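Narrative progress, year one. The postdoctoral researcher (J.K.) led the effort to move from monomer predictions toward full complexes, under supervision of the PI. The following entry was the first complex the group processed end to end, covering 214 residues in total.
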Amino acid sequence: MARYGLVLRVRPEYQDSYIEYHKAVWPDVLALIRDCQIRNYSIFLKDHTLFAYFEYHGADFDADMKKMAASEAMRKWWDIMEPMQEPVPTRKPGEWWARMDEVFHAD
Amino acid sequence: MARYGLVLRVRPEYQDSYIEYHKAVWPDVLALIRDCQIRNYSIFLKDHTLFAYFEYHGADFDADMKKMAASEAMRKWWDIMEPMQEPVPTRKPGEWWARMDEVFHAD
């Protein structure tokens, strides 16, 4: 299992809408996340900064992300989410959510 | 169980030291965290921003935090950590690590 911590910004004018969408994420999007071996997935918000935490239980993260990106439901969801979001300028090439480094873990 | 997402800054000049300390957190500090019913605790870092995620399995978080603060080992640890850290200006009264709002969760 691999733990992921990721950071992104939400545009202030869309923050309320972003919160509302995430109170009722579409069932097919939730099913796809699960099907892509992601578990214990939380998103936290403060000061227009989003922090995502999840645990990946599969064997090929890149392949599962490609599967996710190939889903019509997920593409529709992202089409709504992305205009509300603003990636951090230091993200790596190919990133939207920028991965953070894990500097500590205790079970 | 309650999930916590918390944000704090590390002062750039202390970032390397902060990382080194967290590669070898003192055993009595780790034991105390566990004794205070905290599990699955990770700290992530990017751009001098620290994000902490943990799960609290006890019944009285404030009481467990008081127990933590009363520990000599933890006070010694914090005496080293706090000068390396800078709380976010929007933290609430009494906070050091500022709690974020959970806007999404999927098991």
